[in-house]
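Assess this one:
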Amino acid sequence: MAGVAENGVKAIDMFKSFSNKPKIILMDHRMPEKSGIEATKEILQIDKRVKIIFFSADVSIEEEAYSIGAFSFNVKPFTITCLIDEIKKALESYKTSSYN
């Protein structure tokens, strides 16, 4: 399942609508209506197994992102190599978790 949401509210609604939940979400911090932090909290309340890879230019929220359950935090701008590496790590973590 894949999708793109332009704000935090739509991200949450989209996640809820998927019968087959995605294993990985790429989350931005600054979004209209609800921030990435707020969206991450709500999505993880629905399914704590999802791996949320957080991206932000605001390094001051890194600790908060981790404290609410983000799988990783990456500073913008980032490279495609970084993105691919983070997705690989998240997939590997998902495969080895006890939730499967």
